[in-house]
Structure formats: C-alpha cells, structure tokens
User: Fold this.
Amino acid sequence: MFWRQLYPKKVIASVYGLDWEKLSQRYRGVIFDIDNTLVPQDAPADGKAVRLFQEIHGRQMKTMVVSNNKKPRVKAFADKVGTGYIYKAGKPGKSGYEAAMKRMGTSREDTLFIGDQIFSDIWGANRVGMDTALTEPIDRTTDEIQVTVKRWFEKPFRREPGSVR
Assistant:
C-alpha cells in the first residue's frame, strides 16, 4: 500500500549519535542525504561530518551522498568527506538510490538510507526496498519555503526518535 512507503523504518535524533560499530555488523553501505541530514541547508561539510565519514569508512562500510541539489554543491561536500555522490538524483525516484548502490557494490538488503525528509528521501528509499532512517532536521530555520510546507504534511508519518514501525 502506498501510505506504508512513507513511514521510515526508524526515526533517529541525529546521524551523529548512531552506534556505527553495531550498524557495520548489519550494513555494508550507507547512503545519506546532505542538507539538514548531515549539515544545515547549503552549509559546507564541517569537521563533524568529516569525522563521521572517517569513522564509517574505518568500519569498512561504503558511503554515498544522494542529493537533488546541483553538482557544485554535492561534489564539494562529497569531496570534503571523501565519498562518492549522485547529484540531481530526482528523489523520490529510484534511479539515484540504485546508482549509488551499484557504485558501492551493495544491495538493498545491506544498505541503509538516512535522510531528513519523508516525501523525497524516505519515500524514494522505501520504494527501492532498503532500510530507512529519518533523522530530525539539523536546523529547520535553514529550510527553503517548499521544504517548510512539506514538513507540515510529513507530521502524520513522523514518529519519536528511536521508534520503529
């Protein structure tokens, strides 16, 4: 049923508080959205994001960032954190997620997707069949107006951090 595709498997407070050691035992790859998932909207990669990717890569996990943003934004971020990227991904379409898994050499069964928006990030990843985690936005005040409107419609599909459907 369509509505089920809008619910994340898990809701988390932040990517920065996850147990990556435990996650590395379950997943071989992680795909991230960038804006308000890893940094505020349009912010460059910071030291915290760089250290996160170093930790994940140190656990032998592969990573990619998948964004609907343009190449200059996505490439600059990905280069700084040392990961591959897909720009203008067309989320919630499936192709960006599938291309990311192909480049990582992972499958939907061993890939986790983490993003902050339901109608693009979570819906798209759920359509592909991978596990999804919805993170609280890092800084809602940086959201573009269309994202602010979408967040209002997302409320019925959000759960408390740590919840599982």
About this structure: Confidence is low (pLDDT under 50) at residues 161-165.
